[in-house]
Amino acid sequence: MFIISLLLFLGGMALFGVAINIEAWQGVVFAAGIIAICLAMALPMHFSKTRR
Question: pTM (2 decimals)?
Fold first, then answer.
């Protein structure tokens, strides 16, 4: 799960960087970066083994 989260986080950061430099679809690419980073944070919390 750590590798998937790390790849999503780094991919989201890369999408942020790409969104600044492209001409078309800047908002969509930026939003995809936000969603990727949110998933990178949410997946480990959702699939953690500890229950309270």
Answer: 0.85
Closest CA to 20 of 33, 11, 8, 7: 33
Q: How far apart are the C-alpha atoms of 39 and 15, rounded to whole Å? A: 14
- The torsion angles phi and psi of 22, rounded to 5 degrees, stand at -90, 155
Write out pLDDT tens, residues 27-36: 999 999 999 9
Burial classification of residue 43, based on how many CB atoms lie within 10 Å of its CB (0-12 exposed, 13-18 middle, 19 or more buried): middle
Q: Which amino acid is at 26?
A: Q
Q: Tokens representing 13?
A: 């950061």
Residue 30 confidence (pLDDT): 96
Cα(5)–Cα(2) distance, integer angstroms = 5
